[in-house]
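Lecture 7, part 2: worked example. A protein chain together with flavin-adenine dinucleotide.
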Amino acid sequence: MDFELTEEQQDIKNAAKEFAEGEFDLEYARKCDEEHIYPRELVRKAGKEGFIAMQFPEEYGGQGVGILEVCLVGEEFARVDSTLGLPSLASNFGSEQIWLFGTDEQKEKYLSKIASGEYISCGMYTEPDAGSDAASYKTSAEKDGDDYVINGTKTFITNAQYADVGAVAVITDKEAKKFSNMSVVWIDDLQEHEGIKISDLGRKMGINSTSTCEIAFDNCRVPQSNLVGEEGMGFLQMMQFFDTTRVPVGAMSVGMAQGAFDKALAYAKERKVFGMPVAKFEVTMFKFAEMATKIEAARNLVYKAAWKIDNETPDAALSSMAKWYAAKVGVDVCDEAIQIHGGYGYMADYDVERWYRNAKIQEIYEGTKEIEKYTIAREIIGRI
Ligand SMILES: Cc1cc2nc3c(=O)[nH]c(=O)nc-3n(C[C@H](O)[C@H](O)[C@H](O)COP(=O)(O)OP(=O)(O)OC[C@H]3O[C@@H](n4cnc5c(N)ncnc54)[C@H](O)[C@@H]3O)c2cc1C
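Predicted complex, written out as structure tokens:
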């Protein structure tokens, strides 16, 4: 057993740190948050430097590294600033479907463009009436000639306002049983596609540097050759897809927690109350001890879950533990960081309130914390 990162992993972590510290401008982060701006140029730069879709094979524009390396970058980006880090980390969302299940032709056509930051992609799964209950999606794709004709509505779709392409989960066989009636279809030219209407849902509690959209499909025609993977296997593909994306989401929470911790520590050493630095009160010392322990535990869970995926022994319970626990630590630590800042923590200028707002979403998307606990329980107890 070896808890040290390899030299290559350490180099990747250092490169991500250097990029984020050099490129993430705090004033711009605040502006993106306040004015709901998507930092498109930054995403392009991150792609150029090789930080997007690093897990894709080199022949398709990736770095051919594992999920652990993706986690290291996610952690560093989120530690420096999640408002500016997340748009790059999420810019390839949905395209993992092609990486995992696509044909060589599909991989050739799309993956390099996505990894380079030229294309933004999105994953269109959630519907207004079905989020956690993914088996109840209603959006349908009926065959007509060589096309699928898609009808239905997807909601809360990250990136859709800017995305060039994306994967959509659709019911392709209404007669088939639940879990084997769904497929994944790839959409080109998302912004100009006939039969697609994209509406940004506006500003939200946090991660305002990303767009979150509703997408209405109204007789939208897509060639049947855009099927990703196998017809009827969409639900399974979606679950496998989330197994690889869930752990890096946990890594981002570890980064957010570490960043908030660092800010709180710097403040507590500086701020004097009753004649001494806040950091010297035993109560505060214990807070730091608890936060540091939680962050370390979350980090180790994330790294181990990622390592299991990379070593072809993926562990669904461990991945869910990593995502659930890290997201909880992210929220808890950001909350405590605000508390340690006192009244200043509540003010926008000190940034920790923004971090708290950004951290919260991690407990909701890519599986709510309740659904993660179901997965953990199911794996360890079995279906009751
Ligand atoms: C900012 C943002 C970005 C997002 N990005 C995307 C995206 O890019 N693509 C995409 O497809 N989706 C995206 N989502 C959607 C997100 O994944 C869903 O919101 C999430 O899965 C929960 O679904 P829901 O909102 O329908 O809640 P519901 O499923 O209606 O759940 C409501 C509550 O009930 C709980 N619950 C549900 N089932 C159970 C149960 N069996 N037992 C106990 N409690 C339960 C949930 O945990 C939750 O607390 C995004 C959401 C947001 C807010």
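The chain is about 50% helix and 15% strand. The longest strand covers residues 147-158. Keep this in mind for problem set question 3.
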